[in-house]
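Why should sequence recovery work at all? Because a backbone constrains its sequence more than one might expect. Tight turns favour small or flexible residues, buried strands favour hydrophobic ones, and helices have their own preferences. The token representation captures these environments compactly. In the example below, the structure is given first.
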């Protein structure tokens, strides 16, 4: 299924590309997952009405995730891109999955503005990431069973204030949450596509454009650690719950290594097979 959270409720893509507004009491797909982690209720719901995609406002699929989990340097191409930066700080690329947390308050949806924060407006960067949305929760999940805990995939932009991120490597004042958890810094959408729409191992094309210029262009076959391994690893440290969102890492091409940071008026478009295009404009606080 290709599912959406809209201003009119939860929607399901119908034949011909129209959206069916479903007869459900939930505000968003996060609420639906918490009530029914396997989404059977959504699958079986009747439609109240239909809308053309252009006639309805999409929101982030999960409006306020309990946890936004970011996986660090999880594409081989990004490992190579960061190697000199890490080497200069005496850090070896990690062999185990690494992750950080960002607040649900950072999440915005398609068409909403990414706001350059007054505290750090000058080195704001984009990162396209496939995001796994947790359905069935659990702790200490077995890697072989981990995909059973994933309801589907969406797109996320792991927006980062690189100057704050750099300071997190240099002293105790900052952490990755300062750099990556600022308001509007986690755009998500446009769709949540259930896992049965994708073959394993995942082979999804990810492409990021800024003002029409392709900046990132890679397939998920370049993952260092699979989604299964990431889910199993994180679940060793914390309980995963329905509606949690796990960003699975970004490929090479981020702005910081090109000296290309986001400025007011820039248009950022992220695209993934089946999930669609997530478009946001950069604005000033």
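From this structural description, the recovered sequence reads:
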């Amino acid at each position: 299924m290709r599912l959406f959270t809209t201003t009119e409720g939860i929607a399901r893509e119908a034949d011909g590309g129209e959206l069916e507004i479903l007869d459900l009491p939930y505000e968003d797909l996060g609420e639906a997952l918490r009530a029914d982690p396997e989404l059977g209720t959504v699958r079986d719901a009747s439609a109240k009405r239909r809308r053309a995609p252009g006639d309805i406002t999409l929101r982030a699929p999960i409006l306020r995730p309990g946890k936004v989990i970011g996986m660090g340097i999880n594409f081989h191409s990004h490992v190579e891109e960061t190697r000199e930066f890490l080497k200069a700080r005496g850090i070896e690329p990690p062999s185990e999955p690494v992750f950080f947390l960002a607040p649900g308050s950072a999440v915005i949806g398609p068409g909403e503005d990414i706001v350059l924060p007054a505290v750090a407006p000058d080195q704001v960067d984009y990162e396209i990431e496939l995001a796994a949305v947790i359905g069935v929760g659990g702790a200490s999940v077995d890697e072989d069973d981990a995909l059973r805990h994933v309801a589907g995939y969406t797109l996320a932009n792991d927006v980062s204030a690189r100057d704050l991120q750099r300071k997190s490597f240099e002293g105790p004042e900052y952490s990755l949450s300062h750099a990556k958890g600022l308001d509007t810094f986690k755009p998500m959408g446009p769709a949540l596509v259930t896992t049965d729409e994708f073959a394993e191992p995942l082979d999804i094309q990810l492409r990021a454009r800024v003002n029409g210029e392709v900046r990132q262009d890679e397939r998920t076959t370049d993952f260092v650690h699979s989604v299964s391994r990431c889910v199993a690893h994180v679940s060793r440290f914390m309980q995963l719950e329905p509606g949690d969102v796990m960003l699975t890492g970004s490929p090479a091409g981020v702005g910081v290594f090109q000296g290309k940071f986001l400025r007011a008026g820039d248009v950022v478009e992220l695209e993934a097979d089946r999930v669609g295009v997530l478009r946001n404009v950069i604005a000033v606080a």
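A few observations help interpret the result. The chain is about 15% helix and 35% strand.
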